[in-house]
Hints:
Blueprint: H1 2-20, E1 27-32, H2 39-45, H3 48-51, E2 56-61, H4 64-72, E3 78-82, H5 83-86, E4 97-105, E5 109-113, E6 127-130, H6 134-146, E7 155-158, H7 161-170, E8 175-179, H8 182-187, E9 193-197, E10 206-211, H9 213-218, H10 220-239, H11 241-251, H12 256-263, E11 266-267, H13 271-278, H14 287-300, H15 317-321
Parallel strand pairs: 1-2, 1-3, 6-7, 6-8
Antiparallel strand pairs: 3-10, 4-10, 4-11, 5-8, 5-9
Helix pairs in contact: 2-10, 2-11, 10-11, 11-12
Amino acid sequence: MELRMAALLAILSCLQAACVKRPQEPLRIGVNAWPPFELLYLAREKGFFEAEKVEVDLVDFSSYTGILRSYHQGNVDGFFATLNEVQIADNFQDQPVVTLVVDYSFGGDALVVRDGIADLKGLRGRRIAYEESALGSYELERILAIGGLGPDDVVAVSRLPEEAEQDFHRGTVDGVITYEPGLGRLLRSEGARVLFSSRDIPGEIVDVMAVRRSVLDRRAGELRGVLRAWFRAVAYMKEQPQEAAAGMARRHNLTVEEFLQGLQGAHVPDLRENRELLGSTRAPGRLHQTAARLAEFLVRHGLTRKAVSGPDIIRPDLIESL
């Protein structure tokens, strides 16, 4: 009798534990508008996340500023952003780590100006709109340095990307530092042209996937599923570019040709190249050198008191295990 009672109590205890155990929530990834990031939506559309048995919520934002706010509030587990944004230690209490190189910008970030500005020296005295983020500040600094100009030689106007587009159309700024797909929209304006782009600074603007350390520790298996789905989308895009671009273009009210043109402004590395960039737990990859250069820039320009770099931010173990 006592044995039966003990067994019954054990069963009831297990049932009670099952009832109170919460189901695992989907991984929430913050994304803003940039053509290579659309490959996440392609992975969802083609069922690659489902095939990898991982639930993912893609959370749209109009700018990185919104992503950062949501991360602080605990509403996203990870996000896509430029490497230098992730390196700003002052912006994080819960410092995320880099697990994937998403792309290198190669023309997709640019300075668009009006007719009449022939070269970078012609920016002197002009009003230039930019997003006052680590990326926007970095691009502005590089443009001024290459043009032989100082910070006081232009009027830098801090604006969110969509606000900068409106200012350009209204004629209240002479140039906009922007990125796709806004870049393509601005270039449809009469007299608008690219004066400077990330082609002039190859390899300096890198986009990555960053995740909370606690999420990486607790849900590494699911994150591996996200990465496998990502690389399946990358492969599909290379094999079927027209078909793959159709859905992604519709999301931004673009033609397939316009979307593919925007995508040409970036290089998306595959798994093999990611392994070379991130390195391994034994030998650092090329991304460590890029992170060191960007960290020095961030501190030198007062964008952060401390910039995280090297093994403190780059976690190659997920890529290494695929």
